[in-house]
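sorry for the late reply, my laptop died twice this morning and i had to redo everyting from scratch. anyway the thing you sent over, i finally got around to it. pasting the sequence first so we're on the same page, its 119 residues, then the predicted structure underneath. double check i copied it right bc i was rushing
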Amino acid sequence: MAPKKPATATGPATTSATSTSTSTSSSSSSQIDKIALNIVQHYHKTTPQRTKLIDAFMAFLVIVGGLQFAYCVLAGNYPFNAFLSGFSATVGQFVLTDHRGQQIRVPIRITRKTSWWEA
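ok and here's the structure:
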């Protein structure tokens, strides 16, 4: 005796399921677009110019570090010391810039009641 074949759904039920999943994915992508646009607009409205300049410089450092790493992977790392020093300098500059950016974003207020080591 041959095993029974399972019944498969064909026709409009299958098409509606695929159209529903397509509309759900397109609506979720439009939601992501709206969220990203809202974040960018809020950033441009509320962020001071000085902080934007620091953020742009940090983005430049990320791009430079990425290019150095990609060159090392694609072209080889024959002068490895050169790659290591350049990449380390980029990462170090990023860290120092981030620390300075945090100092600018949150100013430290020292009063007479607060000693300098508590600030």
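DSSP finds three helices and no strands in the chain.
thats about all i looked at so far, will dig more tmrw
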